[in-house]
Design a protein that fits this description.
Blueprint (H helix, E strand, L loop, with lengths): L1 H9 L5 H54 L14 E4 L12 E6 L6 E3 L2 E2 L5 E3 L12 H4 L3 E5 L10 E9 L8 E6 L22 E4 L1 E8 L22 E6 L2 E6 L2 E10 L12 E2 L7 H4 L2 E11 L37 E9 L11
Antiparallel strand pairs: 1-2, 2-10, 3-9, 4-5, 5-8, 6-7, 6-9, 7-8, 10-11, 11-12, 13-14, 13-15, 15-16
Length: about 350
């Protein structure tokens, strides 16, 4: 009996203390693994939203830089004051006050025809025979398009006017080629609408397919005067959307944009040597002649991650502003960190039309 008892007591096993220690070690290992997974997941999520942010900002700069270079295409330098207009620090009711930039020109479609004769009130123009045959577009393509009717430079009238093509007249043999026009309703070009010149001033001028294109940042998602779902406007509180508005239709091209700023460089003082005076913010006091001497536009686009960076702890290094809105042009910086990471790109575009006029040979 005693031998059996000793045998039972000598069998291997775990004491309660050993089990508790093993359980504690297992809990520590599991907690460590979960902590590492959580940290890795947060870092991955942060990096994914930052990569998307970089793509948005780069897309913004691509479209902006391209269109600035094409500003005024189809216009000679005499009419360039009607090709560019800025707005400095528009007050949309929020802390950030972004700039706007409005452009006009034959930006996307190469089309320019000399006017042979302009009818009364600039409602109809005729072209030389076989003019339409220079381009691959069918007649139906032109109907509804917005065009710019440009007077001949020697006319003494400098008002290029927007019109919308309502009818195309074109004999199959390439004769009797004409456009009939209506007003371009709801489209406000740079510098505002101009009164038409006398019809004879457009004889020898030109007609170009034209886009009035405006880049603007919706900081609130409730832009004044616009309705959500109408003409492409998202609205409904969706803020941080950069729009490209072309001939009255709004195209959202990037999201998570926090600020947009522009500065302009030109021979503002009319120096006979043509020396550029340095980059300045848009001024409502500039004359048409000063606007016509703008040669470069500097662009800043600032993106902000939609969510706070979850993998960040502690305090960011002084002066880095990774988690704080920086100053841009004359737009001030934020005064504190908000743990949203920023991505800022800057670009300078030269206005190509003023040095290479490919549409007016």
């Amino acid at each position: 009996m005693k031998a059996t008892t000793r045998l039972r007591r000598s069998r291997p096993g775990f004491t309660i203390l050993e089990l508790l220690i093993a359980s504690l070690i297992m809990v520590v290992v599991v907690i460590g693994a979960l902590s590492m997974y959580t940290k890795s997941h947060k870092t991955s999520a942060d990096q994914q939203q930052y990569v998307r942010l970089q793509q948005d900002v780069r897309a913004s700069l691509y479209f902006l830089s391209r269109d600035v270079r094409m500003a005024g295409a189809g216009l000679t330098s005499d009419f360039f004051s009607q090709a560019l207009e800025g707005t400095d620090n528009e007050n949309q009711g929020g802390e950030v006050q972004p700039d706007r930039l409005k452009l006009m020109g034959n930006i996307d479609e190469p089309f320019s025809l000399p006017v042979q004769n302009c009818g009364g009130n600039a409602t109809q123009v005729s072209f030389e025979d076989y003019s339409f045959e220079q381009y691959p577009y069918p007649d139906s393509y032109y109907v509804g398009k917005h065009v710019l009717l440009v007077p001949r430079p020697s006319s003494g009238c400098a008002n290029a006017i927007l019109r919308q093509v309502t009818q195309v007249i074109h004999n199959p043999g390439g004769t009797n080629e004409k456009f009939k026009f209506g007003a371009s309703q709801g489209i406000n070009p740079p510098g505002g609408t101009k009164p038409p010149c006398a019809a004879a001033d457009y004889d020898g001028g030109s007609v170009v397919l034209s886009q009035v294109r405006e880049y603007w940042l919706d900081t609130t998602g409730n832009a004044s005067g616009l309705t959500a779902g109408v003409n492409g406007y998202i609205g409904a509180g969706t803020a941080g959307v950069l729009y490209q508005t072309t001939n009255g239709v709004h195209y959202p091209i990037a999201q998570n944009i926090e600020n947009l700023q522009f500065r302009y460089n030109g021979n503002f003082d009319g120096d006979v040597n043509g020396t550029l005076d340095g980059f300045q913010d848009w001024s409502t006091a500039w004359t048409a002649e000063q606007i016509g001497r703008i040669r470069q536009v500097r662009i800043w686009a600032l993106g902000r991650t939609p969510a706070r960076f979850a993998s960040v702890s502690g305090t960011s290094a002084g002066g880095t502003y990774l988690y704080r809105r920086p100053a841009m042009a004359n737009s001030p910086a934020a005064t504190s960190d908000d743990w949203h990471k920023r991505f800022l790109l800057e670009s300078t575009s030269s206005i190509r039309n003023l040095s290479l006029d490919v549409y007016n040979k």
